[in-house]
């Protein structure tokens, strides 16, 4: 309020024009606030851009580094045995789950060539390869349970039994077998 009086006196408007002086002072104050808000908005916009840029860069770098890092199963999980026998029922259930959950990325024959594979980095594993087929059931179970970007974790999506059935089905995708052990 004292500033208003000083402003009015300095403008020689103290007598009859106090209202006009007050109006001009408020107008200047509002303009300064608008300029200040614009500067604040500009700074905020830049800060948001920097945060988004750094987050995207971090995701890219992590994805790139992950692609080059081998996916190693902890030793304690490697020796776990599959408790579900690979009978016709388990293989049929495993195939149904594979078709619904895995085939979009890994392809129907498990070669990592599903329709979604082109957009993924790292590329999906080839389940028919000697590398995947040589992994222990416990290792495959751990990887299926934990997931790794871009593959989701199936620990909360599928039951233990369903994951073991999937592993039984993945074993039928081996290139060395007679084009799959499960008939359509």
Rg over alpha carbons = 32 Å
User: Separation of termini?
Assistant: 87 Å
Low-confidence stretches: 1-5, 11-16, 178-184
For this structure, what is the CATH homologous superfamily of the largest domain? Cytochrome c-like domain
- The total strand number stands at 0
Number of helices: 7
Overview of this protein structure:
The protein is an all-alpha fold and 184 residues long. It folds into two domains: 2-68, no CATH class; 75-171, Cytochrome c-like domain (Cytochrome Bc1 Complex, Chain D, domain 2, Orthogonal Bundle), CATH 1.10.760.10. It has seven helices and no strands. The protein has helices at 2-10, 18-68, 75-78, 88-106, 130-133, 137-146, 160-171. The longest helix has 51 residues, at 18-68. The protein starts with a helix and ends in a 13-residue tail after the last helix.
